[in-house]
Design a protein that fits this description.
- Helices cover 14% and strands 55% of the residues.
- It has 5 helices and 13 strands.
- The strands form 2 sheets. It has an 8-stranded antiparallel beta barrel with strand order 1-2-3-6-7-10-11-13. The chain has a 4-stranded antiparallel sheet with strand order 4-5-8-9.
- A hairpin with a 2-residue loop joins β8 and β9.
- The termini are far apart.
């Protein structure tokens, strides 16, 4: 009897607890439906932050797409002149400073590889170097050694030097930097003016397309602007031009140094 009474007491206690209105709905579907996540332990949930500051936006740099280029440079033009059948070339050099404008289009690939096509044009004031015939072309002076009078002249560079190149670079993202090698062609313009007694005796103008190799690097300042520098080595080639029955042979080459700013025409992806 004592055990039976104890069992009845427990049944009454649990029955009273189940009918307590103060507890009703605490874990009911209606409550959970309206308070999703309420009472849930969030101590292990990750915290997510979104940086949309101006600095973060500016740092979202990319080298892809079309860009405009502008800057300045210096070129040391080297040349050598002779006549057909002669082995000795008379060497000269002219230093020119110029403004550079251009366009560049780049495309990135896997593992940091970047390819781009670049078209540039160097614009400078014509540079002259005065000399006598022997200092310009000893072979030409020897051919006309019997002419009497003042034999003077000058070498003159052109105003425009266009070039087209293909660049292959490696993108170092942690430094916002691309180091690249380039291969292309440049058109070098050069004129030899031979003057006899203040009258033009012969004028030899050449505009050869010269193969060019180079190297350089570009760093992004922000998502729009970047700066780059490059060093180029046009490979010397010989151009043959006939004037007044005489075939002139002229070797041309140069060393170019450029410092440029780049402006992206579109926002980085």
């Amino acid at each position: 009897m004592k055990n039976l009474a104890y069992i009845c007491f427990l049944l009454c206690f649990f029955n009273a607890y189940s009918n307590d209105d103060s507890k009703k709905g605490e874990f009911s579907p209606e409550t959970m439906k309206n308070d999703i996540g309420k009472g849930k332990d969030t101590s292990f949930d990750p915290e997510v932050y979104a940086d949309i500051s101006d600095t973060a936006i500016q740092n979202a740099v990319s080298f892809d797409g079309a860009r405009g280029l502008i800057g300045f440079g210096m070129a040391k033009r080297s040349c050598g002149a002779s006549l057909k059948g002669e082995k000795n070339f008379t060497s000269n050099s002219i230093t020119a400073f110029y403004l550079t404008i251009g366009l560049d289009y780049a495309k990135s690939f896997r593992k940091g590889l970047l390819l781009s096509v670049c078209a540039l044009c160097d614009i400078s004031k014509k540079s002259k170097k005065k000399s006598d015939w022997r200092g310009m072309n000893a072979s030409y002076d020897d051919k006309y050694h019997d002419l009497s009078g003042s034999k003077s002249g000058f070498l003159e560079t052109g105003m425009f030097t266009p070039s087209l190149s293909l660049k292959c670079g490696y993108h170092m993202k942690e430094y916002k930097l691309v180091a690249f090698l380039k291969l292309g062609i440049s058109r070098l313009s050069l004129t030899y003016n031979y003057i006899l007694n203040e009258n033009e005796h012969s004028r030899v103008k050449i505009n050869p397309m010269v193969p060019t190799i180079g190297l350089g690097a570009e760093m992004k300042i922000n998502k729009k602007w970047g700066c780059l520098g490059e060093l180029n080595f046009p490979i010397k080639r010989t151009t043959k031009v006939e004037r007044n029955g005489v075939e002139h042979c002229v070797k041309t080459g140069a060393i170019d140094l450029r410092l440029l700013l780049s402006l992206a025409f579109q926002d980085p992806q």
